[in-house]
Amino acid sequence: MNFFCALNPADESGVSSTLYSLTGGLEECSSSSSSTSAAAATSSTMNGTIPTKLVDPVDDPLPGVGTYEDFNTIDWVREKSKDRDRHREITNKSRHSTMALLLSISDAFSGWLLMLLVGLKTGAIAGGIDIAAHWLTDMKEGVCLNGFWFNHEHCCWTSNETTFQERDRCPQWKSWAELVAGSSSGPFPYFINYMMYMFWALLFSFLAVSLVRAFAPYACGSGIPEIKTILSGFIIRGYLGKWTLIIKTITLVLAVSSGLSLGKEGPLVHVACCCANILCHLFPKYRKNEAKRRETLWRSFFAALVAAFTLRSINPFGNSRLVLFYVEFHAPWHLVELAPFILLGIFGGLWGALFIKANIAWCKRRKSTRLGHYPVIEVLVVTAITGLLAFPNSYTRMSGAELISELFNDCSLLDSSQLCGYKSPTNTSGSVGNSLGDRAAGQGLYTALWQLALALLFKMLITVITFGMKVPSGLFIPSMAVGAIAGRLLGVGMEQLAYYNHDWFNGWCSPGADCITPGLYAMVGAAACLGGVTRMTVSLVVIMFELTGGLEYIVPLMAATMTSKWVADAFGKEGIYEAHIRLNGYPFLEPKEEFDHSSLAVDVMRPRRSDPALAVLTQESMTVEEVETLVESTHYSGFPVVVSQESQRLVGFVLRRDLLISIDNARKRQEGVVGASHVLFTDHTPAAVAPEAPPPLRLRGILDLSPFTVTDHTPMDITVDIFRKLGLRQCLVTHNGRLLGIITKKDILKHMAQMSNRDPESILFN
Amino acid sequence: MNFFCALNPADESGVSSTLYSLTGGLEECSSSSSSTSAAAATSSTMNGTIPTKLVDPVDDPLPGVGTYEDFNTIDWVREKSKDRDRHREITNKSRHSTMALLLSISDAFSGWLLMLLVGLKTGAIAGGIDIAAHWLTDMKEGVCLNGFWFNHEHCCWTSNETTFQERDRCPQWKSWAELVAGSSSGPFPYFINYMMYMFWALLFSFLAVSLVRAFAPYACGSGIPEIKTILSGFIIRGYLGKWTLIIKTITLVLAVSSGLSLGKEGPLVHVACCCANILCHLFPKYRKNEAKRRETLWRSFFAALVAAFTLRSINPFGNSRLVLFYVEFHAPWHLVELAPFILLGIFGGLWGALFIKANIAWCKRRKSTRLGHYPVIEVLVVTAITGLLAFPNSYTRMSGAELISELFNDCSLLDSSQLCGYKSPTNTSGSVGNSLGDRAAGQGLYTALWQLALALLFKMLITVITFGMKVPSGLFIPSMAVGAIAGRLLGVGMEQLAYYNHDWFNGWCSPGADCITPGLYAMVGAAACLGGVTRMTVSLVVIMFELTGGLEYIVPLMAATMTSKWVADAFGKEGIYEAHIRLNGYPFLEPKEEFDHSSLAVDVMRPRRSDPALAVLTQESMTVEEVETLVESTHYSGFPVVVSQESQRLVGFVLRRDLLISIDNARKRQEGVVGASHVLFTDHTPAAVAPEAPPPLRLRGILDLSPFTVTDHTPMDITVDIFRKLGLRQCLVTHNGRLLGIITKKDILKHMAQMSNRDPESILFN
User: Fold this and answer.
1) pLDDT, tens digit, for every residue of B369-389?
2) Which DSSP state fits A221?
3) I need a surface site. Which of A238, B203, B360, B687 has the fewest CB within 10 A?
4) Domains, chain A, ordered by start
């Protein structure tokens, strides 16, 4: 059970590999897909010399031909071409009958319908998670006498108390201490509340990790690194299946409620992609094509990132705001404030870089030491530490979203929060009206600052060991919380500096004016930290608009996130998701990473100089037995086909899986095909074959007649560009028209690892 | 002088071809660029057998090698690879000295610096255009007594009148009638104003068209079709040069002021791209690389589209709104209203499709008949018609932006606009306070509706013949104006329908409530029409947010623009810019257009079956004379190099321009190279050459050793995809390792034209 979160299907416990077949997955339904387009294209040019009794794979594709093995990379060009063939066929048919025309129209609209269904399903699940998490979180504090299924807010809904503060303490809601000891103050009730909090936290986290372990190992983590890899064309069966969806939904609620330092936005993206993938099964257009499916997933991925935040805003309890953390600040920002904003950017960048390094080091440790063998104990210990340290401090006891919301808020006159514990304005300037002008910090605020400083330290440390545990866990909320705390601290500091030294801020911050808004600093800090961890910039600023509705703060947000990105990039180019992708060895070709070395294709291709010669098939001179021997003696996923061993002129490329399925099928069903039969990749029967020879096996149908080639002199930067832009799986290397070798995506990733002095063997999958 | 706006440098008047050399252009500075990367890559593997006295094109690239001819397509892969080589070299050098390190850092930041400079320069020019256009527009109506250089608003700035309406008629500002006749009412003053309006309009448009004609023919039109083509990799010398910039800036002001139905947003994009291109000259990173330059232009293109609207909002006269057409509606929209919104979408789509068809038909007429020979007369006649018809109607007399702004506005109680000429509320419902509730239309509103209907008809017709004339002209504002008028008309209609039939709208629109906002309808209509013409959807909705700041109207805007796109697409897939690109025959490969035919590469490649064989060079058996004869007997831009005529195995590709420059240079400067010298594309000297033969000409340095190849069986959809994604110029076609033919971008465009039953000869350039 070393790192079952890292997609190792050969799991020692056997549990996950049993479930592996249970979890209905991404690729299970593609077995009936049609043959490759090259094959289809050839069929029109094939001459009529083929005896009709031979099974022609072109007209009647064998099941399995054209599909992929688990943990392999798809060929985008091929898949897209396949979809265009399908589309062409539908369009052609639609000219002949009304029924076919209707089918063609429904096919065209199926993408819209699918996205609608995905939106509805994801929205419903996200809403359910939200309500359930609220209820369980409140359960840690107490219970509603009207019915245990009410959360705190809901329980007090019908209460007669008028102000929000009083309503918060309505008689129907009882804390555990009130229920057990009958009192809510004093050390003993506090102890009871503390213990009940710990009890529920440990129970929730135990349930979460056990469910993940027992039913869906793929449900852990945020899922974003794996989804990025899947979207780039990798196959992970079951990762987006229905079991993952069910277990992830349940355990996400439990993990969030347990009080661990994690968010639910990242896992919701995984949930949305599961929904999209499952709903894809309803439409043949998406069921049968890996590339089209991924396009849909990609849209869901984006939609979910936005929906994860905005859906929660459709608050069923009457709050009509359209955004999650609604901000409305009294004062505009001043150009001088760019300095502290950039300072927050530097903090965010430093923390992002540090967090990634520390988290990856910790995850490596988990993979390589005995720590990884006891995921349940690990989760319980971390939950216990989190609970013990978080309970006494009100800023860590509340949920991450609540904390951020409070830190973003501007202080109004009515605000009773500790953060607004300013001294009453003394009106020294004689001005009337603007009692929201600058004020000296009071005792309440000083206490709040201390608690916030402790909360900052705590959040920074605990998030490092939390992210990567075997429970669903997102990073958005914890990262933003760290930044928001730092920002609020700096904001209050600036505010007090301005209050006591008005002469320093000559010209724009006169006494009595409300010129510095600590809530804005919290917002900027949150964006900076999120930027440092994920390395998003523009999209992040857009997300912050979505969150806060504050369109006027584009410059502060941009300044902080750009600074944060630059600072963090100085310590390492990778964001947290890329770092986890590399840690797990997925074959992911980062779209932005520049390939900056002067290698040529000949330096990267296999076979190397010391290797045995490339395993190739010839187009007409090999027998079935020879082909079988060659295939079995190697582990390659495909084989180039050449005119003859002497000329090495390239004809095409055939996939191992297609080859084995076709030979197996021919031996079973096709009369006369024996080991001595010739395998023909040509249209015609060669003259050299004796007339009394057994009937040949014709395999031109499964031959890809348009394999990608580059010359041996092609610079690797161009080759990498081609792989990236076209989504290739492999590419053949020629010299003066003769086949020299082959480059696969894995070869490229290994070469890139080598060039940046990393272990090339860290790339695990094909 | 047939269509000098369509980039024909062989212009009969001779004026433009003289200026053609004057206009400092996009490509003039790239002559000193380094050799291709393939050549650089080869240099390391060349052995030492080459006599040192030979000029090696690798170490010392000849001027001109690696550059492009005018009206040709660049090779993106090559250009990007070149930039990576340059970057690698700088990085390597930076390890050795501090100076080089500083250079490397400044190189890395030059992109940011460049964008900053482009932003500043474009902003300054846009601001200048705005101020000048305001002034000249007001000049048509009257003059300021304080000084003729004040516009109307500026002139009345210091006036003592308090309300805006009165201030609008301050004593310092005199209409022409007041100046000449001493009175402002009555038929004679009206006639004087009318005539002065016509006089200025004709003067401005005459100046505009004459300046364009005399100094910068490329300054006409919106420029967006050409810029799209340039960004995709086409070379048009001078299109983004300083003369185009200067003349376009001046004539844009004149054209806008003349009252023609055109906007300035599109031409501002051209201006921004000119600024970016000219500023590129300051940085060698961008000066020497066509691909990097286009990346920068692309960013400016986007930035300008947004800046064109938002820059104007930095109003120097104290209006603090951040958006151009600020909207703040009183009432939210209701689900039932989606029906009229979708109706507006249908109108927008129909109008968009109709406009494109009519405008293209008119432009074709201009190109093919004598109409195109008299651009100045055409502009004067259209200006005269526009002026005569526009002056009497206040909605056509005001500028497009003013009209849109008025139509978007909601009626408040104080509004004195005719559009708000409702009857006073009678308070039948007895409710107090909401006097903005629904009201019956009064006389003022009925007059306004009539005028708007006439304005709609007028705008729809005049825009068709205006867009494409030989003056700078944009489409955004006229399109939006048409949609806004239609929307406002429908909005008022809905409002009155609700007022008189409250029972029809049971449940959501009770009597006295303000439930329908005509301004919102105008906004939705504007988006729908802009969508129908340009076929943008999501980006358009984003632009509408930018324009109006109305985040709550995402659903109405989305519904209308999607409907508009669907309806318009049913009549033809092309937007107005793509239609103009095709009209002018530019080699532009539409990134979204699906290639839906089952052709193979062999069907598209040259030579065709009936053609003479492909002109190829051999790697070592041809003499300088033979090469020269071959090159001169053809007009191809490049030649494949093969091992021998018999084997036809491909070695590389050499560009005609590089070949001619190198041979020419060798004959002049290299001792002993004569007509009988062998041209060698190999590293070694072949054994067959006699020792007493003249010294060979070695040209491996200019040989591209990694030409792109596809097999003859490659489906064309895949080939098109490769061209599009990699930005190829040409691709060689092989069969079983032997060279068969070549496919260029032009061949693909011709094939696509043929497939959709268009004239393949309409593709004019390479």
Assistant:
1) 888 889 999 999 999 999 999
2) B
3) B687
4) 117-313 (1.10.3080.10), 335-425+434-584 (1.10.3080.10), 601-762 (3.10.580.20)
